[in-house]
């Protein structure tokens, strides 16, 4: 149970933290009863705290009665030294890519078995892009996600292989085929998608490496990769190397 505060004398602060701690990678949407149970507090207390947190933007109530983490917590999370530092370091390189391509540019990191988008520059082309800053998407059908998955620990890869949800008709849902593609990513240094996340959109991405680990991925979303893929990979690679040098060893 997350953040158990059922013992007497628990402060209001500890109960608020217990409510927020009820959410994790496996429990992203919870009912009020589930929040109370996981936080170890009575339902009436959970109701009052959740209502106040939702009013302040820390939680968000969905139409079907469940609650999810709100935008306020995401905005605060961006102030954490790790993500804020990475965004600040990467910003000029992302703008260089954007200036050279006028395409939508992403900076993403892995969060559990999903890809978390921490920066985005919107392109001029009319290309369907479903990502937003702070959004989490499947790793197996996004360019930045495939890159991070290719260098992820084996247990994360197996978790993803066990849940290859089909998003479009072109999404890879066969573990063997995806495993082969991840091997190619490690060999060539880039990943690509062809309408696997949204129809009419292709992407290409490369890793940002530090101490032998892919700490982030930079990617571009375009209509097609038929003619410009190599040029886009080259631009992304230059940017990624610049970010790596700025991060240091």
From TrEMBL:
Query: Which organism encodes this protein?
Result: Leekyejoonella antrihumi
Record lineage:
Bacteria, Bacillati, Actinomycetota, Actinomycetes, Micrococcales
Keyword RNA-binding part of the UniProt annotation: no
Residue ranges annotated as transmembrane are none
Matches recorded under PROSITE patterns: HTH_ICLR (PS51077), ICLR_ED (PS51078)
Q: What is this protein called?
A: IclR family transcriptional regulator
What range(s) does the HTH iclR-type domain occupy? Answer: 10-71
Tell me which residues make up the IclR-ED domain: 72-249
Note one Pfam family from the annotation. Answer: IclR_C
